[in-house]
Specification:
Helix content: 40-55%
Structural class: mainly alpha
Strand content: 5-15%
Number of strands: 2
Number of helices: 4
Order of helices and strands: HHHHEE
Strand order of the largest sheet: 1-2
Shape: elongated
Length: about 120
């Protein structure tokens, strides 16, 4: 017996495979940082989707695993890939040095130049 896949299932499988490949290429740059970000974003995405489905805000009619209330495979692959891609290829740096004063009364502006806060 041949099992035929629907168009939506083929699109979901394609998205999962492409996001796994993309995540692999991003994760190999810095496994610790991007791995932690992948883990946190997948858990957060699954939690938020489960909460919204439980409340009744939305539902998922097409899922790869029909027994689960949320598309768990897609949430644990596609959403973290979007997060990794956004952080990795962001036009600005996400380091703490941009958020905090550097300790000597200076800071970095939007163009990554050092600026000194004049004494008052």
């Amino acid at each position: 017996m041949i099992y035929e896949l629907k168009a939506t299932q083929m699109m979901e499988i394609t998205a999962v495979i492409l996001s796994l490949i993309g995540s692999f290429f991003i994760l190999r740059n810095n496994l610790k940082r991007y791995g932690l970000l992948y883990f946190i974003s997948s858990l957060t995405g699954a939690f938020l989707c489960f909460v919204f489905v439980s409340i009744g805000f939305y539902s998922f009619p097409a899922r790869l695993i029909p027994m689960s209330p949320i598309p768990i495979i897609e949430i644990f692959t596609v959403i973290p890939f979007y997060v990794l891609f956004g952080v990795r290829y962001s036009p600005s740096k996400w380091g703490m040095e941009d958020l905090l004063l550097l300790g000597d009364g200076s800071y970095r502006d939007a163009f990554r130049n050092f600026r000194v806060i004049p004494p008052s």
